[in-house]
Amino acid sequence: MPATAASTQPALVFRQVAVGYTETPLLSGIDLHVEPGQVVTMLGGSGSGKTTLLRAATGQLLPMAGTVQVLGTDFAKASPAAVRAVRQRMGVLFQQGALFTDLTVFENVAFALREHTRMNETEIRERVLDRLQAVGLRAAAHLRTGEISGGMARRVALARAVVLDPELVLYDEPFAGLDPIAMGITAQLIRQLSDRLGCASLLITHDVPESFEISDRVYLIGKGRLHASGTPAELRASDDPYVRQFLEGLPDGPVAFQYPDSPAFQQWLARQPAAKGERP
Ligand SMILES: Nc1ncnc2c1ncn2[C@@H]1O[C@H](COP(=O)(O)OP(=O)(O)OP(=O)(O)O)[C@@H](O)[C@H]1O
Ligand SMILES: [Mg+2]
């Protein structure tokens, strides 16, 4: 397939952006560039304005200065219909990514497919189980969200963020509430999903080891501005005190990640529509 304009243009660009909620900006002079296929991390301490920047990238908040371009569109100049169209090409893992409590894990992930696509039940089942497999929760598909832990709920939210094959995924604190093992695997998963789907990923976190492991570029914000940007190796070599402050933590070793199979899952699975090729 020939390269299209959409596949070669940057996924997300911030140019001299200022954001905030009052007349005084919370952050200003922010430059950010995310190319298709890249995993880019925005690091900053709690309250530094990371989620606020994410809101600028989703168009929930318009910049006070500068420009934000998302998949080639400037939300400040786009029509509501154009904004909606761009949002459908994005996946977002919100920091407070609440799941629908009255739905199963499966239905939570399937929700956007039912809303925004014409996929049939077999296609939906394949896509949802594929994404649940990727986050280690295939065999938890039948559980209600009240029956899963907080960390599992994060992984379900992750599966949900990528279910529509987005071109750009924004992850706000994807490691929150995860144990060190699930954290490392989740980081690898974000990298793998990016590589497999060919999407761009912006990772918003204060977790250095996991994000450095998988990122092409890292940005560090604090005290109202951008302090550093570069490859993880460049940031590791930096003697900027802000940069140094973030470079600590230890990853852990591999332990079972997939939620264990069970008769309850198998019974649930048996009641699902047949997969492609299984039909007469
Ligand atoms: N809707 C809002 N209205 C007014 N102020 C807000 C709003 N949301 C956040 N703030 C303020 O903006 C600042 C930055 O908040 P933000 O949520 O962007 O930080 P953060 O870097 O994401 O922090 P954390 O790591 O704890 O998630 C905080 O002082 C916060 O109180
Ligand atoms: Mg936040």
Widest beta sheet: strand line-up: 6-7-8-3-9-10
Q: How are helices and strands ordered from N to C?
A: HEEEHEEHEHHHEHEHEEHHH
Bound molecules: adenosine-5'-triphosphate, magnesium ion
Query: What is the radius of gyration?
Result: 19 Å
- Based on helices, strands and strand pairing, what is the structural class? alpha/beta
Mean pLDDT: 87
Roughly what fraction of the amino acids lie in strands? 15-25%
Q: Unreliable runs, pLDDT <50, ≥5 residues?
A: 1-6, 249-256
Overall form: globular
Keywords:
6-stranded mixed sheet; alpha/beta; single chain; 38% helix; 280 residues; 11 helices; binds adenosine-5'-triphosphate; binds magnesium ion
Describe the structure in your own words:
By secondary structure, the protein is of the alpha/beta class. Helix 5 packs across helix 6. It is globular. The two termini are 33 Å apart. The N terminus is likely disordered. The structure holds adenosine-5'-triphosphate and magnesium ion.
